[in-house]
Amino acid sequence: MSVEPPSSQADRQLTYSDYLRIPELLRLQSPLSRPMAHDELLFIIIHQTYELWFKLLLHELDAVVANLRAATRRPDSRDEVYEAARLLRRCTEIARLLVEQFTVLETMLPTHFLAFRDRLRPASGFQSEQFRELEFLCGLKDERMLDLHEPAPELFAALQRRLKEPSLRDVFFDALAAMETAPPMSPDAAENERFRMRAQLIVAVYRKEGGHRDWIDVCERLTEFDELLVAWRLRHIQMVERTIGMTRGTGGSAGASYLRATLDKKFFPELWEARSLMCEDPHGS
């Protein structure tokens, strides 16, 4: 009578834990406080979760860029525009989660954060390469911010690439101009002239609503995403003030004071300017 050999690892059925790499994932939380401050685990998990959502946002927004580039090449097709809007809807829902996640972090008392805060220095949330990548990808590019990320060479290279390549903002307006057969814009055009022409292009699309509902859907999703990221910045400020008041951040920044200066940052300012233009001339005279 023959004996069956034991099953190899390759023959073993895939499990939930295997697929999601749960054991490895659960080993990634390593509090530094000794004895461990109770709320440090909360702090780590919240921020690791943010980074996972940032990774997904980059993945989805890259797909939006690819679809808008395809729409530029095929302005008569609507499939890519629909797909861009569908993916942007997902991005807005992720952004909504980013805002709501602060409510969990705000269950931490200031004294409980202070129990491990000194162990974090000089690390800072400003060093989140993925969030900086999101800013660069969407069009909010500031080369000076690269200095914060030099200690991580691989991520620094990704940021340099994002800084040089066309942003979602640029690709969106290229696709919109191709669809609207707008006159080509000189690459040497002054920034304020480029801004004005882009805002007027948005106005033209909204005023032809009947034939451009798919593009208007993309515009609305981009505007909502922008709105939610401003809300995220505001909740971040409120959470910082609620926890450490107006003191300096662990990385040496001005803390809440610096964060307040970021509230006017928008990824797609032309979409907001277009609303002013429409209200100033409601009938398109």
TrEMBL record:
- InterPro entries according to UniProt: Trp/Indoleamine_2_3_dOase-like, Trp_2_3_dOase
Gene encoding the protein:
kynA
- SUPFAM superfamilies in alphabetical order: Indolic compounds 2,3-dioxygenase-like
Superkingdom of origin: Bacteria
Q: What pathway does the annotation place this protein in?
A: Amino-acid degradation; L-tryptophan degradation via kynurenine pathway; L-kynurenine from L-tryptophan: step 1/2
Q: By what name is this protein known?
A: Tryptophan 2,3-dioxygenase
Q: Which reaction does it catalyse?
A: L-tryptophan + O2 = N-formyl-L-kynurenine
Q: What does this protein do?
A: Heme-dependent dioxygenase that catalyzes the oxidative cleavage of the L-tryptophan (L-Trp) pyrrole ring and converts L-tryptophan to N-formyl-L-kynurenine. Catalyzes the oxidative cleavage of the indole moiety.
Sequence positions that bind heme:
H236
Top EC category: oxidoreductase
Q: Tell me its cofactors.
A: heme
* EC numbers for this chain: 1.13.11.11
HAMAP family (alphabetical):
T23O
Q: How does it assemble?
A: Homotetramer.
The question of whether Transport is a record keyword is answered with no
How is its cofactor bound, per UniProt?
A: Binds 1 heme group per subunit.
Instruction: Please report a single Pfam family linked to this protein.
Output: Trp_dioxygenase
Species: Nitrospira tepida
Which keywords does this chain's UniProt record carry?
Dioxygenase, Heme, Iron, Metal-binding, Oxidoreductase, Tryptophan catabolism
Please list the GO terms describing molecular function: heme binding; L-tryptophan 2,3-dioxygenase activity; metal ion binding
